[in-house]
């Protein structure tokens, strides 16, 4: 397994408002936009915007694009982390995704973009 990219996730209450903010305030180049997931490049870093669940407060997270989610999850577990949510395909986001934790309990998102 190899890690092929990294990104930050910002959980947002209003996708359109947040996308406009990051685009205008930080010259974010919009790569993809939908109500379920939007991505921008800001200062060479990938930033993903994801809807926040009702009742959740502001959150920012870390994620890695991987070429093999099953192997990536196994590597996390072997290194002392945990697989919180095994890989699953999310149709609305067009992505395969898993959630793991590091040894300190911090959640990390692992993704494999779906082929089209």
Can you characterise this structure?
- The chain has 116 residues and is of the alpha+beta class.
- Helices cover 19% and strands 49% of the residues.
Global outline:
globular
Amount of helix: 10-25%
Class per helix and strand makeup? alpha+beta
Count of helix runs: 2
Order of helices and strands: EHEEEEHEEE
Q: Please state the CA-atom Rg, rounded to the nearest Å.
A: 14 Å
Biggest sheet: strands side by side, in what order?
2-3-4-1-5-8-7-6
Question: What are the segments in which pLDDT stays under 50 over at least 5 consecutive residues?
Answer: none
Number of beta-strand segments: 8
Strand content: over 45%
* Biggest pleated sheet: 8 strands, mixed
Mean pLDDT score, rounded? 87
* First-to-last CA distance: 21 Å
Strand-helix topology:
Blueprint: E1 3-12, H1 15-26, E2 29-32, E3 38-42, E4 45-51, E5 59-66, H2 69-78, E6 82-90, E7 95-101, E8 107-113
Parallel strand pairs: 1-4, 5-8
Antiparallel strand pairs: 1-5, 2-3, 3-4, 6-7, 7-8
Spell out the key features of this protein.
single chain, 116 residues, alpha+beta, 8-stranded mixed beta sheet, 8 strands, 19% helix, globular
């Amino acid at each position: 397994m190899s890690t092929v990219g990294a990104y930050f996730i910002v959980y947002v209450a209003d996708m359109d408002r947040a996308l406009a903010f990051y685009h205008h305030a930080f010259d974010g180049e919009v790569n993809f936009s939908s109500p379920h997931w939007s991505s921008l490049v800001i200062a060479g870093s990938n930033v993903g915007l994801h809807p926040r669940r009702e009742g959740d407060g502001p959150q920012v997270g870390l994620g890695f694009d991987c070429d093999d989610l099953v192997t990536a999850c196994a590597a996390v577990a072997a290194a002392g982390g945990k697989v919180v949510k095994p890989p699953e395909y999310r149709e609305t986001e067009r992505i395969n995704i898993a959630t793991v934790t590091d040894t300190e309990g911090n959640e990390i998102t692992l993704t494999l973009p779906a082929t089209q």
